[in-house]
Amino acid sequence: MPVKPPYIATCGCVIRDGKPCVHQLKRAAERKSRFDAKRPSAAARGYDSKWQKARAAYLKAHRICARCNEPATVVDHIVPHKGNPFLFWLQSNWLQLCAHHHNSWKQSQEKRRV
């Protein structure tokens, strides 16, 4: 099985097996922290108690992930609502997903749209 050869990162660390060094992990954590500091809270984005009740009812009716046969735990907006209340509450724009598919497949779809 081929293995990636080690290389030297810009910080001077020798990187083996494609795993990030301590410095890369620290920079990534700082970048995410800066992003989160600018982002409004979940309640400010519309995910309040009214949403939690609607989400629970939707997941009760749609128990299985739309991508696999695992239990659905996340209600996703197919078309990102970007603050549009009509799209936010439009149930035909909702999709039940397991956490794995929401955090991997859906997020990669979002990155492609940008």
Give an account of the 3D structure.
The structure is a single chain. By secondary structure, the protein is mainly α. The chain has two domains: 32 residues; 65 residues, no CATH class. Helices cover 44% and strands 11% of the residues. The protein is built from four helices and four strands, in the order ββααβαβα. It has a two-stranded antiparallel ribbon with strand order 1-2. The protein has a two-stranded antiparallel sheet with strand order 3-4. The protein is elongated. The two termini are 36 Å apart. The model has no long low-confidence stretch (mean pLDDT 88).
Helix coverage percent of residues?
40-55%
Radius of gyration: 19 Å
Order of helices and strands: EEHHEHEH
Question: Average pLDDT value?
Answer: 88
Beta-strand level of the residues, as a percent range?
Answer: 5-15%
Query: How many distinct domains?
Result: 2
How many DSSP E strands?
4
Inertia-based shape? elongated
Kindly name the structural category. mainly alpha
Largest sheet: 2 strands, antiparallel
Per DSSP, the total helix count is 4
Instruction: Tell me the distance between the termini.
Output: 36 Å
For the largest sheet, list the strands in their spatial order.
1-2
- Uncertain residue segments: none
Key descriptive features of the protein:
114 residues, mainly alpha, two-stranded antiparallel ribbon, 44% helix
